[in-house]
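Bumping with the actual sequence this time:
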Amino acid sequence: MTDQLRPPGLDRRRLFRLAGLTSVAAAAAAVPALAATPDGASKAPKSTAPDPSTVEIVVDILIAWGATHAFGIVGDGINPLIEALRRRRDEIAFIGVRHEEAAAFMASGIAKHGGRLGVCCATTGPGAIHLLNGLFDAKLDGSPVVAITGSTFHDMEGMRYPQSVDTVRLMADAALFNERISGPAHALHVVDRACRAALGDRGVAHLTIAKDVQSLRLGADRPSVDPARSRLASRWVRPDSAPSPDQLQAAAEILNAGRRVAILAGQGCLSARPEVELLADTLGAPVAKAYLAKALLPDEHPLTTGGIGHLGTRPSFEAMQACDTVLILGSTMPWTDYYPKPGQARGVQVDRLNDRIGLRHPVEIGLVGDMQATLAQLQPLLRRQTDRRFLADAQSRMRDWNALLRKVEATQTRPRLRPQTVVRALSDLAPDRALFSLDCGCNTQFAARHITIRAGQGWAGSGTLVSMASGLPLAIAGAFVHPDRMSIAVVGDGGLAMLMAELSTAVLHRLDLKILVLNNDALAEVMFEQGDMGNPTYGCELGHIDFAAYARAVGATGVSCATVADIRPAIRRALSTPGPVVIDALVDAQEPAVAPMDLRV
């Protein structure tokens, strides 16, 4: 999601005006979905009442900033907020979920799959606490999310009142913007700032409101400063900055001098696909894709060697080990063993944040700026590499690697299914515009390696927090933000079981959602980690859950596969059945998720 948000131009007639104020903060035009054009801006906001309440102002501004969904669970700490959302339900849909953690993951998923502002809300105390894991996913992956929590009555704070939690302190590490709304006049300004911070700085903005403050009316509020003098900027502007000409020239000289240039591309490139492709072709440089950038280029594109790192491919590792120059674009891929060896290669890095330059690998030149603008200005300074042997060698290695994957997928070694075989079938049969959402565990590696992403398909996961239970909520978010596309979750039984009640959310809303669960009755990745430490397996065995039966119990469709002959018929049936479907694949817990250099048939 990083670096793909693009605000449309602002029509001054869209500015937010509330009755009774001569000049107030105006919310920005909406950020369109990832593939949307600038005319995908939100409808002009409108006040719901001549004398709006605090939460009516909050909802007005969220709509003005392009929020289309708010995920959460109702509760007495946010009842006024829920009523304000109900009144505007034609403009922003409240989606009730079964656990607030899922609500936060879904808000993060709105940003990851749709490139727009995600919103979640929770009641006082326990509800707010439940949000945290999903909010940290948004923080660490740079997903713009506004989280709204209720708090106890304003005069009961600090009095050990039931469910009284200091939510501002609670959210301090997760949120880059974190404020308590004191009343409707305050809301006019602080909600606008929260949305701008979430989108502009790419992270979580948290707002908490005492339950009695939520219902206060603007006419009864007495701001300390004339609103005309405290007016905020009326929009968020995407920073299209690029480095200085001298820096660009220095970077170009390093890249032009290289004879074996390799590119490591992360999610920060997702807004610059054409620029990355042109640059790679000019330099004759194979592109290794970090996990969240899998959809940057189709996996069969001649310029890519696929993924990199423990989830990646052997050719990507080999390209990094053989290059004399590395160009790191919008990535902080954490596995340092997969970068060039120290002293082996010269380095150039492009990122929107200065503190990421040199974070994983030393570079001579760090270019800080917008990815698309920077690459567009760098491109004319580059010479076309006429010696294509390094790229040709990487392409040859990719052919060998893909042949190895096909052999693995076609080989059965034990009675239960190889997960690679099941994932390959899903990859082959999934629609061209499918959205894939991943969980965390061995299933992540099997999906990252054995799904061949095609042009037009989407990809999301918990990239930095690496949280189990993320796959289903992210897929639900994908189905909401792109109702015309099939949303597919690939999960393990351990991760799915954590938030499996959210399947009923998908059923309630009749989402076109398919869930492939690689069911091995174990926390397999931890099992292998324990073995690597020389320890016996302990605490990793899970009781068996029949997820197909569970799906039917909550109103979805459930299908199972336990033999190779079952796999493709089960997946075909699932993909052709309307509504939510669970594919329960009984796979081998002893199938290891190995590093690319260790993969064998």
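The tokens above came from a reply further down the thread. The two ends are 35 Å apart (CA to CA).
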